[in-house]
Amino acid sequence: MIRSPLLLPVCLLAALLFLPSGTMVGIILAVVLIVLAIAATWWFSGRRRHSLEDVRTELAKIDDLSGRVPQPDGGGEVARLARTINSTLSRLEGAKTEMDQALERQRRFAADASHELRTPLAGLRANLEEAQLHPDDTDLDELLRRSLRDVDRLQAIIADLLLLASVRADNHRLREETDLSEIVREEVTRGAHRVEVRHHLDPCVPVEGIRGQIGRMVTNLLENAERHARHTVEVEVRRSGGAADFFIDDDGAGIAPDDRERVFERFTRLDAARSRDRGGTGLGLAIARDIVLAHDGTIETSTSPLGGARFHVRLPLAGPPSRWSHDPAAWDARTP
């Protein structure tokens, strides 16, 4: 391939020097070749200038990152330049889309958080105004109880917001190997439950992570299941290949298929009749999802064998694969 159009006439002029002197045919042939070389040089240069001008013109017209410049065929310099420009525009467009989505999520989150914080603040203000306007008719003990309840709710929302802001930070240096079954057992047996909670736990299911965050994820899912169960909640931890599977099932009303992604959004209420008085800040499932994702896991919901909702968390097992299967009979054991 001729890299420069000037190379051709130079070669032809050099060949002219070797023609026999006085040979008319040779002179005529040399003149013809030189003319052809000049024409070829002009044609190649014109094509390159034309292609570069097309690229420059289209690039100047682009006013948003979805535009592209014309891309000539072949592997020439102009074609490679056009491909590089289009590739750069594609990456910039993707980065801008991600930034716009992140800004929209932040805007929605700020609006939702403001609304959630406004509710207990309004209740607290109403209690104080009532005491100020009608001091003789105010039951001080009842007013203090209501005010403390609103303060507790404010503290819970703020604590959850702070946790959400920090859980996705780089935490790899804080991770350690911990037993998922042990964490689940501790959370299940920590206190009294509104409904029956049954658990079936494989012994020694090692995962790598921050123990406090994993415990918070388990607690949030357990509280959510108890809140919506009628009579029973079942919890199970088992090994599956190189993963630790954590299931939590309830016998409540379940979650419609169209809502199974939305349920993990912040401050989501699938049923307007479910009031905040039943507990929760509206952030529990969002926190659980973020903790799972921060630990390189997955979380999804489906229909439970009990008839309600099933939440399934999968986390990678810790350590080398040689430790993942000791005695198969041991992994079939069930904790009573």
Automatic annotation (TrEMBL):
Enzyme class: transferase
InterPro entries according to UniProt: HAMP_dom, HATPase_C_sf, HATPase_dom, His_kinase_dom, HisK_dim/P_dom, HisK_dim/P_sf, Sig_transdc_His_kin-like_C, TCS_sensor_his_kinase
Compartments (UniProt record): Cell membrane
Ranges of residues in domain HAMP: 64-97
Keyword GTP-binding tagged: no
Keywords: Kinase, Membrane, Phosphoprotein, Transferase, Transmembrane, Transmembrane helix, Two-component regulatory system
Domain of life of the native organism: Bacteria
Record-annotated Histidine kinase domain positions: 112-319
Pfam families for the chain: HATPase_c, HisKA
EC number: 2.7.13.3
Transmembrane residue ranges: none
Any one GO molecular-function label of the UniProt entry: phosphorelay sensor kinase activity
GO CC annotations on file: plasma membrane
Annotated catalysed reactions: ATP + protein L-histidine = ADP + protein N-phospho-L-histidine
Protein name according to UniProt: histidine kinase
Organism, scientific name: Sphaerisporangium krabiense
